[in-house]
Amino acid sequence: MNWLVTGGAGYIGAHVVRALEAEGLGTVVLDDLSSGRRAFVPEGVPLVHGSILDGPLVDRTLHEYDIAGVIHVAGFKYAGVSVQQPLHTYRQNVTGTANLLAAMQERGVERIVFSSSAAVYGTPDVDLVTEDTPKSPESPYGESKLIGEWMLRDQGVATGLAHTSLRYFNVVGSGTPDVYDVSPHNLFPLVFDALLDGRTPRINGDDYPTPDGTCVRDYLHVADLAAAHVVAAKRLADDLPIEPVYNLGSGDGVSVGEIMRAVAEVTGIDFTPEIAARRPGDPARIVASGELAARDLDWRMRYSLAEMVRSAWEARRAAGGGGS
């Protein structure tokens, strides 16, 4: 059985590919390399260079590589930018997913794990987010992910598609020194690039009603995230019961201030973050329960905060240079 990983040359997707390979599962990558990197794909894993917007290409890939299931990680993932580029976001995330599902239906591929997002919740008014927390996305990105979940649900009703969607927050760390987070918008790359460039990292607001005044979020190690995707895929392959959605959450969260202190300790670079104004719409705390995923997907937080930071820092430094 070969699994197709869309977006498998990206930071998260490349870790999913490695986790599949470690389980002895055949893997094929489809990626347009708009944010992914060819070097992130392990040697021996076929890389189909192209977009999920190219329906005929997706169809050929499913057929030529005898694909039995899909882990769908590809997408436009920048929530803030999506507000300025809504049509681009919907085209990549909604039209692209529709193309993928259409090709799967045509080729009889009946299993899919969808990499969704906690952005579907918007700013929840609860201390601990569960799968049943009301969905109220606040960006085209979050909306597009929720629409993706709806499409899987509706295909399940119409065709019997076996599916699950994994919602998660902030992904950090590295499970291998040759793959690291290259996003220009994520916290760890921003902090590391600042330090490597001799600049002082910045915190947006330190007057929130949290223990140290900074925002609290779920921060998940990418290797844990990848492992959960693979367990979900194996449950689908074995026709085991599976929920339509799971939150991959820590249950308690980490503050931005704690991250900054851990970065200073791990890197050995002594710094005091600059404090900037709050960003509009940033809630004080968003943390999700991972209980359902722990029950079904062997979901666990296997890494301490220091280990998350250290693995990310070592991979970033192995890449060389300052800046991104």
UniProtKB/TrEMBL annotation:
One matching Pfam family: Epimerase
Enzyme class, spelled out: isomerase
Coiled coil spans: none
GO molecular function, one term: UDP-glucose 4-epimerase activity
Statement: the UniProt record of this protein carries the keyword NAD: yes
Record EC number: 5.1.3.2
GO biological process, one term: galactose catabolic process via UDP-galactose, Leloir pathway
Domain of life (superkingdom): Bacteria
Cofactor: NAD(+)
Family: Belongs to the NAD(P)-dependent epimerase/dehydratase family.
UniProt name for this protein: UDP-glucose 4-epimerase
